From TrEMBL:
Record protein name field: Pimeloyl-ACP methyl ester carboxylesterase
Domain AB hydrolase-1 span(s) in chain numbering: 15-235
Any one GO molecular function term: catalytic activity
InterPro entries recorded: AB_hydrolase_1, AB_hydrolase_fold, AB_hydrolase_sf
SUPFAM superfamilies (alphabetical): alpha/beta-Hydrolases
Pfam families tied to this protein: Abhydrolase_1 (PF00561)
Length: 251
C-alpha cells in the first residue's frame, strides 16, 4: 500500500512525516513555508481512512499504518530516512522502528503517544470514543489538550477539518489501536536518536509523561518543551517546531 502523500524538497536527507489522530497530512500546513527544502526531502502521508486515503479500506491499526509507511518509503526509493510523528503518529513511528530500525536515521515525536499506549480513565474513555460520532467531543478534546486557551475559531476550524477528512470507522478503530497497544518492551534500549517535543499546556501527553516513558526507554532520547504550546505544536508554534526538528536532524 503506497499512501497518498505530498513531496516537498529535494535534499539528500529523507523525512517521512506522520499525522495524528484528529487530522490528516494537511495538519502540517502551517510549517510548510519554513522547511529547509535544500537539505531535506519531506513526504507528508495520509493513513488509510484519512485525507486522500479516506475511502481506502483496512484494519485501521497503527501496525498496519507502519507497514504502509514502509511500503511508501520503498515506492519512493528511500532506503534510509527519518521519521516525524505527531501524537498517534509517534506510535506509528515506533512500530516502524521495531520493524526496520536499520533504515532509520532518527525519530522525532511531537506530543507523541508512548509505546505503552494511553490508559484512559472512564470519563476520558467516553470522551474519546464518542468523538467518532460527535463533533462537539472532538472540539472538547482539542480544547482540553491545548490547555483551554486557544480561540474558538481555531477549535471550530480544527473540528471542521477533522470531521471532513476522516472516515468515522477508521477514526474509531485507530483510537483503540494507539491507546491500547503496549510495545514498550520492544523499544526499550534501542539506540536510534530520538527527539521528543512536548507542550507545557498539554495535560494528557505532558512533558512529565514524556520523561516517564520515552526518556526512560530510549537511551539516546532528548526532550524539548514548548512553553507556549499544548498538543498541537504545528499550529501553535510552527517556527519553533521547524527549528527544533531540523536542528536535531542536522546533527
Amino acid at each position: 500500500m503506497q499512501l497518498p502523500h505530498d513531496l516537498i524538497g529535494s535534499g539528500p536527507h529523507k523525512v517521512m512525516v506522520l499525522h495524528g489522530w484528529l487530522g490528516d497530512r494537511t495538519s502540517f500546513g502551517p510549517i510548510l513555508p519554513y522547511l529547509d527544502t535544500d537539505t531535506f526531502s519531506y513526504a507528508f502521508v495520509d493513513y488509510r481512512g484519512y485525507g486522500e486515503a479516506r475511502d481506502t479500506t483496512g484494519n485501521y491499526t497503527v501496525a498496519e499504518a507502519a507497514q504502509d509507511v514502509l511500503d511508501t518509503a520503498d515506492a519512493l526509493g528511500w532506503d534510509r530516512f527519518s521519521l516525524i510523528g505527531h501524537s498517534m503518529g509517534g506510535m506509528v513511528a515506533q512500530h516502524v522502528l521495531i520493524a526496520a530500525e536499520q533504515r532509520l536515521e532518527a525519530l522525532i515525536g511531537i506530543s507523541p503517544v508512548p509505546a505503552s499506549g494511553v490508559p484512559f480513565d472512564e470519563q476520558s474513555r467516553q470522551l474519546f470514543t464518542g468523538a467518532a460520532e460527535a463533533p462537539e467531543q472532538r472540539r472538547a478534546i482539542l480544547d482540553l489538550t491545548t490547555g483551554n486557551r486557544l480561540p474558538a475559531a481555531w477549535l471550530d476550524a480544527m473540528v471542521h477539518r477533522s470531521t471532513g477528512r476522516t472516515d468515522k470507522t477508521a477514526f474509531r478503530s485507530y483510537l483503540d489501536s494507539w491507546s491500547q497497544t503496549d510495545i514498550h518492551e520492544w523499544v526499550k534500549g534501542r539506540t536510534t536518536p530520538v527527539l521528543v517535543l512536548a507542550g507545557a499546556h498539554d495535560p494528557a501527553l505532558s512533558p512529565e509523561v514524556m520523561k516517564d516513558t520515552w526518556l526512560e526507554w530510549y537511551p539516546r532520547a532528548e526532550l524539548e518543551i514548548f512553553t507556549d504550546a499544548g498538543h498541537y505544536a504545528p499550529d501553535e508554534v510552527p517556527l519553533a517546531l521547524v527549528s527544533h526538528c531540523e536542528g536535531f536532524l542536522r546533527r
